[in-house]
Design a protein that fits this description.
mainly alpha, globular, 0% strand
């Protein structure tokens, strides 16, 4: 599996959040996440216990964002 560069990942994820939630709620989310100490391993197990990878979830998010743009 090839990893995309950090700046590209950051840009794409930010744009997905903005497209879905708008600038204000995206900013709120980023501030909320930066303030909250988080155990990534526990979070990952809780949200990906069905065996789905982060990349697979990312593809679903991209597909969802495309359908939202098409209907907007």
């Amino acid at each position: 599996m090839t990893m995309i560069p950090d700046n590209e990942l950051r840009t794409e994820c930010f744009q997905l959040l903005v497209d879905r939630f708008g600038h204000l709620d995206t900013e709120r989310f980023i501030v909320m996440m930066s303030r909250s100490p988080m155990d990534y391993t526990t979070w990952h197990q809780r949200h990906f216990s069905n065996g789905e990878s982060v990349r697979e979830l990312g593809e679903k998010i991209k597909a969802f964002a495309k359908t939202r743009k098409a209907t907007a």
